[in-house]
Write a structure and sequence with these properties.
alpha/beta; UDP-n-acetylglucosamine1-carboxyvinyl-transferase, Chain; four-stranded mixed beta sheet; 32% helix; binds uridine-diphosphate-N-acetylglucosamine; binds phosphoenolpyruvate; cytoplasm; cell division; EC 2.5.1.7; cell wall biogenesis/degradation; UDP_GlcNAc_COvinyl_MurA
């Protein structure tokens, strides 16, 4: 298993190019199942999850491959297998997103239940209930979701009692080929939902109001292939900005989408950073400025994203003052806390909050990555910890950050990947 060895570094400085968003690219790749002809997707990051998605699509019978670095080509016309096996689904929860498209296009799907993961149980009841409302027959047995529909799915008025990104995406995709109108109430409003809707519309779908909590979809007979560019990764952007902030550095993130991370930029400003923002770039300057801790409460978009919580816990440990970070989305998303404590961080956990006492002087240690963003927080801590930090099990990190050590080293960090 690969690990990262991180030495304390001088203030980060320079320009970093932001990759395409993992969480937009994954549903967009799966949406190709709905199309009758070849799809071309640009700005698709090179990540383990993307690789898994292409393997899954190929397992279904599609012909997909990467072309010219950041572009992916998917020809779905040869799909003839409707089973998503446990072997692939267990490594990537987003595999559940083949369920809606397979059912809508082919009338059947067998998809392994994704199971729980480090950050929580992550049920899929809303995905299943919504599809049932659209006329699907669903059985769950032997760890598989077996779904079928007689004829076509029917449009429905669906109210989701929890805001779910994945359920909104699955149902939105399914509704594109359903008969009649579907209304998704209490829908997720994340930028990745809007990106998926735009991609579906480029294929000929009729999705409106994505980005609000009431999405309306008029079903169409068929969808065609399209060319679509994935939006920039707001979580990668936020992670680099925090890395620069804790080192007292100055960086510019290019090919970013500042409007998608307003809640994060607001907290960074409150944490003492000087931010300058253009249409597609963000500059953070922390030179000679005092880092101040900030209270955080995670919430669905446009609230503060849970995927940035761990990185802010690392920041708060180093900042002036005591802060409270409350996780409201996932029940077990503080796995980074014991590892940060091993590096000397002064944090205590109370129910779903982490109380961070700032100005910790962190010391390098051997720490273990337990999930994707927890891993990112350990890398951030490693940049400023005295001595050497070894972050083990970085396959989590490789799921969601493209060439993270190369990008950070380009800004002046000193990180080595050791294969093992
Ligand atoms: C690939 C991808 O885009 N992943 C993101 C997506 O995950 P994902 O789509 O899995 O997360 P959801 O938005 O569905 O989860 C939000 C909450 O809803 C609950 N829930 C969800 C579905 C369901 O059927 N029933 C139910 O109760 C979950 O347990 C959780 O408490 O959104 C999360 C919340 O912003 C992010 O952290 C993940 O990075
Ligand atoms: C939790 C995340 O991803 P996933 O939903 O793919 O596990 C994440 O991107 O932080």
């Amino acid at each position: 298993m690969d690990k990262l060895i991180i030495e304390a570094c001088p203030p980060l400085n320079g320009i970093v190019t932001i990759s395409g968003a993992k969480n937009a690219a994954l549903p967009i790749l799966m949406s190709s199942i709905l199309a009758d002809s070849t799809c071309y997707f640009d700005n698709v990051p090179e990540l383990r999850d993307i690789h898994t998605s292409l393997s899954l699509l190929n397992e279904l019978g599609a012909k997909s491959y990467r072309q010219d670095g950041q572009s992916v080509v998917i020809d779905p016309s040869s799909i003839d297998n409707f089973n998503a096996s446990y072997e692939l689904v267990k490594t990537m929860r987003a595999s559940i997103l083949v369920l809606g498209p397979l059912l809508a296009k082919f009338g059947q799907a067998n998809v392994s239940l994704p199971g729980g993961c480090a950050i929580g149980a992550r049920p899929v009841n809303l995905h299943l209930q919504g599809l049932e409302q659209m006329g699907a027959k669903i059985d769950v047995d032997n760890g598989y979701i077996r779904a079928s529909v007689n004829g076509k799915l029917r449009g429905a008025h669906i109210f989701m009692d929890v805001v779910s990104v994945g359920a909104t995406e699955n149902l939105m995709m399914a509704a594109c080929l359903a008969q009649g109108e579907t209304i998704l109430e209490n829908a997720a409003k994340e930028p990745e939902i809007v990106d998926l809707a735009q991609c579906l519309n480029a294929m000929g779908a009729k999705v409106s109001n994505a980005g609000t909590d009431k999405i309306v979809i008029q079903g169409v007979e068929s969808l065609s292939g399209c060319r679509y560019r994935v939006l920039p990764d707001r979580i990668e952007t936020g992670t680099f900005l925090i890395a620069a902030a804790v080192t007292g550095g100055k960086i510019r993130c290019e090919q970013a989408a500042p409007k998608t991370l307003e809640a994060v930029l607001d907290k960074l400003t409150k944490a003492g950073a000087k931010l300058t923002v253009g249409d597609d770039w963000i500059e953070l300057d922390m030179t000679d400025r005092q880092l101040i801790s900030v209270d955080i409460k995670t919430a669905p978009h446009p609230g503060f994203p849970t995927d940035m919580q761990a990185q802010f816990v690392a920041l708060n440990c180093l900042a002036e003052g005591t802060s409270v970070v409350t996780e409201n989305i996932f029940e077990n998303r503080f796995m980074h806390v014991p590892e940060l404590q091993r590096m000397g961080a002064n944090i205590s956990l109370q129910a779903n909050s982490a109380i961070c006492n700032g100005k910790s002087s962190l010391k390098g240690a051997q720490v273990m990555a337990t999930d994707l963003r927890a891993s990112a927080s350990l890398v951030i801590a490693g940049l400023v910890a005295e001595g050497e930090t070894t972050v083990d099990r970085i396959y989590h990190l490789d799921r969601g950050y493209e060439h993270i050590e190369t990008k950070l080293n380009g800004l002046g960090a000193n990180i080595k990947r050791v294969s093992g």
